[in-house]
Every structure is written in C-alpha cells, then in structure tokens.
Q: What sequence folds into this?
C-alpha cells in the first residue's frame, strides 16, 4: 500500500510545482504588459509636475524631481482653454446621450417583426459601415445642411452609429421574448415596452456603448478642423492639436503671463515646449481616465451576452 501511494504523492508534488511556475510566469508577463500600458501616462504625468528644465533635457524617467504644479496653473490661463473644455463636455454629454438612445431604439426596432421593411432598413444602416463617400462629399453635405460653424455639426453626424445599433440589436435578441409578449398582453405599446421593459434590461450594453461614444466624442478633433472657424466652437482636443504643433509659440505666451520676478525666482519652472505638451495632454486625458473605471465592469457583460446565442 505504501509503495502505491508514493508515486501518487510525487505526481501531485510535480503538478503543484508546475502550476506554481506557470502562475509565476503568468503574473510576470501580465505585470510587464500592465507596465507597458501604464508607463506612458505615468511618464507624461511626472514630466508635467517636475522641473521644466530637467524635463526638457529628458532627465525625468522613473520618478518626478523638484515637484511643482505651476504648469497646470499656467495652462489654465491659456486663452480659450476653458471655453474649449465647455464645448468638449457639452458635445460629449449631448452626443453620448443621443447616440445611446438612438442605437438602443433602432436596435430594438430591428428585432420587431412588425416593423415595416425591417430587413431592408437594417441592411441599409449596416451597409454604411463598409462604404464611405469621403471627406469632401461629407463636408459639402454638412455645409448644405448649415452645420458648418454650428455646434450641432458635432452631434448630428454621430447620432446613428451602425456598429452600436448592431450591438444593441444582438443584445435585444438575447432578451426572452416572453417579457415583451407579457407586456403586449397587458396592453403596452411599442414605446412603452421599449422604455419600461427593454431599457432596464439592456443597461449593460448601453453602458458599454456610452463609453465608446463618449471617448469618441471627447477625443475627436478632425471635425473641428474641417467644420469650425469660430474659435468659440473649438474643442479641447483641437486646442491640444494646435498647441502640440505650436508649442514654441505657446511657451512664449505662457511665460509672458508670468511676472518677471517669478521667472527670476525660479528659472526651473519656466514653461518649455515639453512641459506644455505634457501638461495639456494630462488635462485632456484625465477626464477619460477618471470616468472609464466606473464603466469598465460593464464591458465583458455588455459585449459577451449580446454575442452568445443559445
């Protein structure tokens, strides 16, 4: 009996050792991957709060040196930055809400057999994912519709997103039909079923779509470049785009807003091209980094439930 148990023990010991080795290697690989993902943001941040002369020379790599926050105070004084932040927030909030509501409603309607020409309209929407007329026809269309130099030029072109509609449609198909049938027996109409039954049930996919739409709205700057000439309609991302390309001019602007006595007291804190780029980048990216963790938990549930049939 003792001879038969010994090989079993050795086998278990060998298997446990192998599991430990695999776990350690897995943790190391994922730690390195996490470091690669996080370090660029960390690098930008520590350079934005370190002595600007050291940052300009590339001395800040692993930890901040001579920490100060004067760059953020100086960037806040840049003309037009606060107005651009307001425009970015407004377009993100309004655009995200409308995009989510329209995607949810169309996705739901495309699952209803009573919808007139349902298959035709679904294919008509889906085909726009693969064919694009190009920038010039798009601009001419926007100009004809009066959406140049117009805040709604940020909103209307982004309301109908085929990919989001397909996600909602797939998710709605996974909802038991019995819920809708019971509501119809009680006399509920299409809108009542949508708002009272479907919206609460499909919250995970709506949260996922909201993240996608909000990030796209917040990060967009090309539409500002093409459509907007009025500086009051510039977005924060477009301001960042301008400042990255004109960092030397921005450096002079910020330094000119600082008194000569302050500059003389601390030359290390004088704005440089690198400090401007780093600081403005953090200002633009920080809102997304703060909001994303609250919605991230919906990703797996929102995407996978709508993708699995059965």
A:
């Amino acid at each position: 009996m003792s001879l038969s148990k010994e090989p079993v023990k050795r086998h278990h010991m060998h298997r446990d050792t192998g599991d430990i080795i695999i776990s350690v290697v897995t943790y190391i690989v994922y730690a390195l991957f996490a470091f690669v993902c996080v370090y660029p943001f960390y690098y930008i941040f520590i350079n934005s709060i370190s002595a600007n002369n050291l940052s300009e020379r590339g001395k800040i790599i692993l930890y901040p040196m001579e920490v100060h926050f004067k760059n953020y105070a100086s960037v806040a004084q840049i003309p037009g930055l606060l107005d651009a932040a307001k425009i970015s927030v407004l377009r993100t909030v309004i655009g995200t809400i409308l995009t989510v509501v329209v995607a949810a409603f169309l996705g739901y309607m495309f699952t209803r057999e009573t919808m007139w020409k349902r298959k035709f309209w679904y294919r008509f929407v889906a085909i726009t994912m693969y064919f694009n007329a190009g920038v010039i026809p798009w601009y001419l269309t926007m100009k004809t519709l009066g959406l140049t130099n117009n805040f709604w030029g940020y909103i209307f072109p982004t309301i109908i997103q085929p990919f989001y509609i397909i996600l909602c449609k797939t998710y709605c198909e996974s909802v038991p039909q019995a819920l809708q049938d019971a509501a119809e027996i009680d006399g509920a109409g299409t809108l009542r079923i949508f708002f009272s039954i479907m919206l609460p049930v499909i919250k995970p996919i709506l949260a996922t779509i909201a993240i996608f739409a909000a990030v796209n709205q917040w990060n967009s700057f090309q539409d500002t470049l093409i459509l907007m000439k009025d500086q009051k309609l510039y977005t924060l991302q477009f301001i960042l785009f301008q400042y990255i390309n004109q960092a030397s001019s921005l450096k002079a602007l910020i330094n000119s807003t600082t008194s000569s006595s302050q500059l003389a007291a601390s030359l290390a804190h004088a704005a440089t091209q690198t400090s401007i780029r780093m600081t403005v980048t953090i200002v633009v990216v920080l809102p997304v980094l703060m909001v994303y963790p609250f919605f991230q938990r919906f990703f797996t549930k929102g995407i996978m439930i709508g993708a699995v049939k059965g």
